[in-house]
Amino acid sequence: MTDLLVNKDPGPAAPPLPADEAALIRTARSRTRRRRLLILLAQIGLVVLVLGGWQLGASSGSLDKFTYGSPDGVVTQLKTWFTDGTSLGSIWHNIGVTMQETVLGFLIGTVAGVVLGIALGRIRALADVMAPFIKAANSIPRIVLGSMFIIWFGLGPSGKVALAVVLVFFSVFFNAFQGTREVDRNLIANARILGASEWRVTSHVVLPSAMTWIVASLHAAFGFALIGAIVGEMLGAQAGLGQLIAQAQGNFNADGVYAGTLIIAVLALIAEFLVTRFEKKVLRWRPTQLSADSGL
Fold first, then answer.
1. Which residues are registered as beta bridge partners of 89?
2. Which residues contact 65 (CB under 8 A, 6 or more apart)?
3. Over the stretch 13-54, which tens digit does the pLDDT of each residue have?
4. Which pTM does this prediction carry?
5. Pick from 26, 45, 47, 27: nearest CA to 37
6. Which residues of 236-265 are buried (b: 16+ CB within 10 A; e: fewer)?
7. pLDDT tens digits for range 65-75
8. How far apart are alpha carbons 219 and 106 in whole angstroms?
9. DSSP 3-state of 232
10. Contact status, residue 160 vs residue 233, Cβ threshold 8 Å
């Protein structure tokens, strides 16, 4: 019996692709590479056009440098921050403070949004009770909450984390809630027929089905967390990129405002890249046409 299993003929190998089909695949891949290259060149060209026009206008006097700054002024400001530091300490310390507040707010808000979103999506009575309170909380302007958190928590990082949590929570909550409501009822019924408990139904059926909705919300959620941290720092803080921008604004330093904004944009792009990688890994089971990266 063992010999039969060991010497079993694996069967004929898969036939090679026909020449015309292989040529079509190569052509499609070549077109994809060309398209990506053209998009990259267009993006670079757009950046060069905007920065070149801005620098030309500032150098010629068409744009007031005091009001609008200039690209070379922004570069000089960044060089000063990264070599000599800032009035609030090292630029890396300020970046670290902002990112710590952002990441904490993102994680806490995401977990809270997923848990409460799935709970309310699964328990209709609980959703009916909590609905007016959630709508009322979501309608409060975030700048008001930021001021409240400054009063409650002071100038430390706690208030910025709390503001980031609020912004992230509602973004993730509504997606998790809607994703839970959109789960195929037949799957839930079949799981119950097979004897699955409510916990197993939620963890093995509802959560995987709603994961597409949840992960999609993470792209915007991290941006909201960063906004919460920056806005909180601008309202009052001892360190952070938001406080640097607020000081530059108070000193009418346009180059400092743009330099801080550029650092924030770079951090946001890095975070978006990481979230996209996480999405592709978690949602690997999706069809290609749904998981294809659109670049947005």
1. 86
2. 58, 73, 254
3. 555 556 666 677 777 778 888 888 999 899 899 989 988 888
4. 0.77
5. 45
6. bbebbbbbbbbbbeeeebbbbbbbbeebbe
7. 888 888 898 99
8. 11
9. helix
10. yes
